[in-house]
Amino acid sequence: MFVKTGDTVKVIAGKDRGTTGKVLKALPKVNKVVVEGVAIMKKHQKPNNENPNGAILEIEAPIHVSNVQVVNKDGQSGRVKYQIEDNKKVRYVKGVKLD
């Protein structure tokens, strides 16, 4: 998968199209990512010690990895390209090194 935890990505499809955020979690087995501030859903929580009356939490839901593009340091988004430099695999987006 071309997206890693901590990458800055831009959403290119769906209700949050155009939103930029940081990847909180990558789920490679199901090809999904959790992006900060994107795909907010409400979760109803039963009463517990922290919330004796229960609560309605807003959390980020996973979105498919095909709906995001990685953003480089210059703010340009695009596809990830891999090159080998000094026997290491390096990721690039639009000619700018990511790692």
Helix content: under 10%
Overall mean confidence score, pLDDT: 95
Placed side by side, the strands forming the largest sheet appear as 6-3-2-1-7-8
- Report the C-alpha radius of gyration, rounded: 17 Å
User: What's the order of the H and E elements?
Assistant: EEEEEEEEEEE
How many β-strand stretches?
A: 11
Through-space gap between termini: 15 Å
Share of residues in strands: over 45%
| Morphology | elongated
Structural class: mainly beta
Largest beta sheet, briefly?
Answer: 6 strands, antiparallel
In terms of per-residue confidence, which ranges show pLDDT below 50 for 5 or more consecutive residues? none
Number of helices: 0
Question: How would you describe the overall organization of this protein?
Answer:
This protein has 99 residues and is mostly beta strands. The chain has no helices and 11 strands. It has strands at 8-11, 20-27, 32-35, 40-45, 55-60, 63-64, 68-71, 77-78, 80-85, 88-93, 96-97. It has a 6-stranded antiparallel β-sheet, with no helix packed on it. A 3-stranded antiparallel β-sheet has the order 9-10-11, with no helix packed on it. The chain is elongated and about 55 Å long.
